[in-house]
Design brief:
The chain is α+β, with helices and mostly antiparallel strands. It folds into two domains: about 80 residues, Phosphorylase Kinase, domain 1 (2-Layer Sandwich), CATH 3.30.200.120; about 220 residues, Phosphatidylinositol 3-kinase Catalytic Subunit, Chain A, Domain 5 (Orthogonal Bundle). The protein contains ten helices and nine strands. The longest helix is centred in the last third of the chain and has 20 residues.
């Protein structure tokens, strides 16, 4: 079973970025700063983040480490500081346009939907990664560049139906002395795997005979926060974002789809099976597992594959 860290710490610094309650802290006797983020009420944001991390391990995608945690009788996630000493994190919005606000625009009302930025196109993001090195932890094909690795992040998004790859959910880390730049490991995947659904809806979608309400139809609704053209009214679906990114990167497409094809469904199920019952229901396990398997099938059987 995956560990759930029980925390009793004093926040060092309240972190204001984003929409979730979060703060930095250090474990007793440690010198590494960790970020704790509370999960929103009635969501599985803690277990969805952990599942995403474990899928990154299977796929060989550079990723930030996550552990499930509990504090003040509330669940959340903890992650170590992803920015090494002498480095600075440059968020995607800073790379895309220098006159961006310092923080991502607040969502409207209670919908928790981020204000979208039309300049956030796949081609522009990949263009921003020209001259940037792959993540420092990259251990895959050395012939792939930072843009190629980012395509792996988009494959992950399509696999887990992650709808939160907005322009503060990817970044570059820069050495402040040498100015050398690296793509940051992928992070912040909690908005995935149907983590916001209630079990009643999961049960209905798992048992319905209406193909328009089943898991297969549900995963097809997932949209990325990336656009194809800045004039588009809606962002791309997650699988479209991946295939658009690799459209002229045949070697990259073959690499990532090959990694996906090599994953055994039993290994995927084992990830869900290792989540403690106290944080996930059997219905949530079954539904989310079927989401991943359906998305895997869709990616591998796509005519563009």
């Amino acid at each position: 079973m995956f560990e759930i860290k029980r925390l009793n710490v004093n926040p060092d610094d309240l972190e204001q970025l984003g929409t979730k309650e979060k703060f930095w802290f250090s474990f007793k006797g440690g010198n590494v700063q960790w970020l704790f983020k509370y999960s929103r009420e009635n969501t599985g944001e803690h277990w969805s983040e952990k599942v995403a991390e474990e899928l990154c391990k299977l796929l060989g995608i550079p990723h930030v480490k996550y552990e499930m945690a509990q504090m003040n009788e509330r669940y959340g996630i903890v992650t170590p500081n992803a920015v090494p000493e002498q480095y600075r994190m440059i968020m995607g919005n800073e790379v895309l346009h220098k006159d961006s606000p310092s923080t991502y625009p607040e969502p409207f009302g209670d919908t928790q939907q981020f204000v979208r930025v039309k300049q956030h196109t796949v081609s522009r993001v990949l263009g921003c990664l020209d001259g940037v090195n792959p993540p420092k932890s990259w251990e895959g094909n050395n012939n792939l560049n930072a843009g190629d690795v980012f395509c792996g992040y988009l494959l992950l998004d399509a696999l887990i139906s992650n709808q939160d790859r907005h322009h503060e959910n990817w970044a570059i880390v820069m050495n402040v002395d040498t100015q050398e730049k690296f793509l940051c490991e992928t992070y912040d995947h909690a908005a995935s795997l149907g983590r916001e659904l209630l079990d009643q809806e999961r049960h209905e979608r798992l048992t319905t005979k209406d193909i328009n309400r089943g898991v297969g139809k549900f995963v097809r609704r997932a949209r990325s926060e990336l656009f194809k053209l800045k004039t588009d009214k809606k962002p791309l679906f997650t699988n479209e974002a991946f295939f658009h990114a690799v459209d002229k990167r045949a070697r990259t497409k073959d690499y990532w789809l090959g990694k996906l094809a090599s994953i055994n469904d039993d290994d995927i199920f084992d990830i869900f099976n290792r989540i403690p019952a106290e944080v996930i229901s059997e219905l949530a396990k079954e539904f989310s597992f079927k989401m991943v398997i359906e998305n895997k099938k869709r990616l591998l059987e796509d005519e563009r594959a």
